[in-house]
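P.,

For your records, the input lines for the assembly:
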Amino acid sequence: MSKQYETVIGLEVHVELATKTKIFCGCSTAFGAKPNTQTCPVCTGMPGSLPVLNKQVLEYAIAVGLATNCEITRYAKFDRKNYFYPDNPQNYQISQLYLPICRNGGVEIETEQGGKKTVGIHEIHMEEDAGKLIHDEWEDCSLVDYNRSGVPLIEIVSEPDMRSAEEVIAYLEKLRLLIQYLGASDCKLQEGSMRADVNLSVREAGAEKFGTRTEMKNLNSFRAITRAIEGEAERQIDLIEAGESVVQETRRWDDAKGESYAMRSKEDAQDYRYFPDPDLTPVNVSGEMLEEIRAKQPEFRTEKMARYREEFDIPDYDIEIITGEKALADLFEATVALGAQPKKVSNWIMGETLRLMKERETDASDLRFSPENLAKLIALTDTKQINSSVAKEVFEAMFEENVDPEQYVEEKGLKTVNDEGALKKTIEEVIAANPQSVEDYRNGKEKAIGFLVGQTMKAMKGKADPGAVNRMLKELL
Amino acid sequence: MNIVDMTATQLAAAIRAGKTTAVEATEAVLAQIEKEDKKYNCYVTVDADGAFTQAKKVQERIEAGELTGPLAGVPVAVKDNICTEGLLTTCSSKILHNFVPTYTAEAVLNLQKAGAVILGKTNMDEFAMGSTTETSAYGPTKNPRNTEHVPGGSSGGSAAAVAAGECIYAIGSDTGGSIRQPASYCGVVGMKPTYGTVSRYGLIAYGSSLDQIGPLTKDVTDCAAVLEALASHDLKDSTSVSREDTDFTAALAEDVKGLRIGIPNDYLGEGLDDEVRAAVLRAADVLENKGAVVERFDLSLVEYAIPAYYTIAAAEASSNLERFDGIKYGYRTEEYAGLHNMYKKSRSEGFGEEVKRRIMLGSFVLSSGYYDAYYLKALKVKALIKKAFDAAFAKYDLILGPVAPTTAPKLGESLADPIKMYLGDIYTIAVNLAGLPGISVPCGQDSKGLPIGLQLIGDCFQEKKLLRAAYTYEQNE
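Structure tokens returned:
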């Protein structure tokens, strides 16, 4: 490659909003129900049915707009995007083209060089999701599930302000955290509650005009996004270097093969015949409503990090990890509020929680144990009612089923035995049974005592305080 | 008096008085359908069994004193574009030849609350597109006054059924005159309420921003009673309006003293049949004699109403009718190669000529590059027409004119020249564009014995003034 190229990237990010009901009807949005059980005449596009806007969708869209420094459109409208496809029961999608709810915003990201830059947001609009097509290879037919039809989405359209995969990931992380903190979505790429389409072009370094761009779809993880961006930039540069030109088209990323293929070119682009949906009245955002939503905006990550540094004596690294997931930050704060020592809460999160999350492939938003139970567990160790290895065992049970640690310890008989008589009797038995170790210790082999402590703990079924065992052994020897 | 000759108000009173029953009334009307409908073809579907079941239940509730209103126990016919749960609803189209709705339209539910007995579904122009009921896939309806003539349209089946005693009253829908014009041609009363007064939930949309359900009745008293039952604020319809003044029967008084009535010169000009003009002016004299102040004025913009209407209605229809694709319900072509071929063939074979003409027209005016020149311009014209009416209603309480330029044309005369047919809507269409209420009241007949209709137009939400003037005219005709 003789010339230097610059990659120019803009994103279209779809986020599924965490409303309980769909955007234009009262059907549930819960994930995983039997096909077509969460449907009604509206979201199956039955003749004569009419949409009514779910106000929560509007509030979430505005809240995301405010968090991303957008201008909020005070007189917005919904438009119909017309195209025929069986997952789209009306054969038009209700979306926003002419007057989207948010415009002209931007978020700040950190670049690889450690600097800061702003990624502009062109617009955010509200729209409905489509149903899901299932192709039955055996029966050679297609089935459609309309449970997802009408699930609310916002589409966040960025300006072409990103220049590398790293910047794209930083931007997506920023959006994910803002939206999670708002409670507007859980933003899971794998489950499709956050989806990103990548618009990418390359140009010679220093050139003013943008190159011809392609749009990449089907990117289900940060890793896929990174690979797709690198692959597509390379593909476009190769074309240009070979004297060919980039074709404006939509491409589909195949993560298994690590390559993309063309889905449709611009020439095949449909005319969507957008026009304002006459079934929906224009959306008037009052100053009052705007102020209400503004007042409800939560503490976002940057502010939270600063506050943690001020309030809690925990390492910066812990702060970064804990505030990196809204659910972890919530857990941390709620447990501390119950009186647990921040450092200890942080240790449980950074240690066992993250370890088990990784092992069980659990998302922070899916953690089952309550702050109350974590606080109880910490109290049990603080008061030396259980030792640390028992605590880990109890924690694992909490992680699985949110058991009450006090009850669990009681039922399983895991409490540390503080009965000196019983302990003394056991130690005497251990001393009697291990004359060699006793002799080694008496001959100055300090290490031998470790073995004796272990034997005692074993005989006590782990329910002794190892410190006390150590002390008493030394006395008796 | 014969049951089939009674008005709804008379029949309900007779049932309440124990002189007859809802079941007897249903029997009488079904017998009339049996006897007459072969001649007129008013119905697509007659639901005799269902009607008897409803009549029995209603009769019990009347006897229990639960139903006391002026429609209790009275048999009604419903236009076939209004959804009725479990009862075939075809829009007089082949594409919905087997469509049985899973829910009932709000307007029909409101009638049922008032004790209505649904007889069946009336014939119409396919998807309400037409002015003669000749575009029905189930054969034309004939005018009971003279079977060589059309009943008008699109609610021709409803108007003819009322005129033929095949129901006591009916409901229809009016997008550009589809209630008022057939009422005029068949010599019955028909009203299009202010947009938003009657819920559109369950009305299979033609032009969503123009469609309104309304009554077709034997007299003005019934019209008020039916409208009172139909009107409701429905949260399932975003365009539904909350109104306090829906006690329309309270307006039935002979009192037009001081009422200012304007007759647009534009409505008496070229193209208007002399006999129709004379009848309408005689009707104006009747109101003047009763104390109304009648004046001529220039409304302006009348000639722009038709092109604006056919642009907006066709645009909305092209999108509204996309859901009829043979995938989920309705007609699907026998043989096809792939999805898009299935769409094309199902729709080409399932829709009639006039519907396809309007879908093409609507798709064209919304397509990229033409949207501004046609669709947006039509919306601007619509706004200007509304302004012209606002100016008129600053001077007048009501506007008076003909419903249609001529009396009912002969069968087969209209479809050959669609432009001429479209021009026949000139006096009714602007009312829909401006969202106004309008009523058609019989005002005599021409030399061939065909009925002539008088149209009264009110400002938004002024149905009571309309009903008062119409009632006064009716009593003094």
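Two observations worth noting. The mean pLDDT of chain B is 97. Residues 181 and 421 of chain B are 12 Å apart (CA to CA).

Regards
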